[in-house]
Write a structure and sequence with these properties.
alpha+beta; Alpha-Beta Plaits; 28% helix; four-stranded antiparallel sheet; globular
Length: 97
């Protein structure tokens, strides 16, 4: 099993929801209206007058075989409009009940 964390500009919410539905991913935790800044080229997203946009994030635990498809979809979304911003991070998960 893998944990997949996806952080994205709130403008991509419908597309990320579609990704989860298309992949048959029902279990996830979502955080909305979070602030942050991309490490290389991203503008701050702080929900302030100066930086009005905000991000959302999703954490889901999926079988290993779904990870490549998720990452490919996220990469394609990012390539469409790099200024909006989306990133995915993956790590191993051990245990659970």
């Amino acid at each position: 099993m893998k944990a997949v964390f996806i952080a994205y500009n709130m403008a991509l919410t419908e597309r990320v929801d579609y990704l989860l539905e298309r992949m048959g991913i029902r279990g996830y935790t979502q955080w909305t209206s979070i602030s942050g800044c991309g490490s290389e080229t991203g503008d701050p997203r702080k929900g302030t007058h100066t930086w009005p946009e905000v991000n959302n994030a999703i954490l889901t635990i999926v079988p290993d075989e779904k990870v490549a498809d998720i990452l490919n979809y996220v990469q394609k979304m990012d390539e469409i409009n790099k200024d909006v911003g989306i990133r995915a991070f993956v790590w191993d998960v051990v245990g659970g009940y």
